[in-house]
Write a structure and sequence with these properties.
heterodimer, A: mainly beta, four-stranded antiparallel beta sheet, B: mainly beta, seven-stranded mixed beta sheet
């Protein structure tokens, strides 16, 4: 089974900061990776699919990159609405990373 | 508007059974693969099971294989999860999620979730 590892587990940042979250796969997954945002008590929301494609309606400050085993989610300028937990997910067996909580510094 | 509404959660004793339902609307349900994903309290997301549009392909996580059964009724626009031999570690919010119609799009719509608590 493919394992997904995110880092960091928690990230403290301020409004306006550039934020980067990393996701590593235990074996190559090409570009078959998605990113989700989840707020407390809510369902996850798809942000990025196929590593770098922005889901419709998602602000352009979110971007994804990477291929093979290493991927990143970048928020170019953190907004108050972005404080949440972010998960990566690979497509072969739908494994999720353990999550990265972005909290207010 | 795409809507997924789960129901059927509740409190059940270890070893018991529960059937979850997910009512879909706002899209052609019969054209989409569907999934169940769960989240234990304070924990991350765990994929549970997938079913293809015509029920031809069904997959389960190892943690539920042999105990859970996914099914769908396209005439009723409904997805189901039959959960048997429930354990304390099955306690979680269970979400149904639609798989995008294109191969590149994963879970593009999610329900609000239903809580399953397994406890004596």
């Amino acid at each position: 089974d493919i394992q997904m590892t995110q880092s960091p587990s928690t990230l403290s940042a301020s409004v306006g900061d550039r934020v980067t979250i990393t996701c590593r796969a235990s074996q190559s997954i090409s570009s078959w990776l998605a990113w989700y945002q989840q707020k407390p008590g809510k369902a996850p929301k798809l942000l990025i699919y196929k590593a770098s494609s922005l889901e419709s309606g998602v602000p352009s400050r979110f971007s994804g990159s990477g291929s093979g085993t290493e991927f990143t989610l970048t928020i170019s300028s953190l907004q108050p609405d972005d404080f949440a937990t972010y998960y990566c997910q690979q497509y072969n067996g739908w494994t999720f990373g353990q999550g990265t909580k972005v909290e207010i510094k | 508007e795409v809507q997924l509404v789960e129901s059927g959660g509740g409190l059940v004793k270890p070893g018991g059974s529960l059937r979850l339902s997910c009512a879909a609307s706002g899209f052609t349900f019969s054209s989409y693969s569907m999934n169940w994903v769960r989240q234990a309290p304070g924990k991350g997301l765990e994929w549970v099971s997938s079913i293809s549009s015509s029920s031809s392909y069904i997959y389960y996580a190892d943690s539920v294989k042999g105990r859970f059964t996914i099914s769908r009724d396209n005439a009723k626009n409904s997805l189901y999860l039959q959960m048997n031999s429930l354990r304390a570690e099955d306690t979680a919010v269970y979400y149904c999620a639609r798989e995008g119609i294109a191969a590149a799009v994963p879970f593009d719509y999610w329900g609000q979730g239903t809580l399953v608590t397994v406890s004596s």
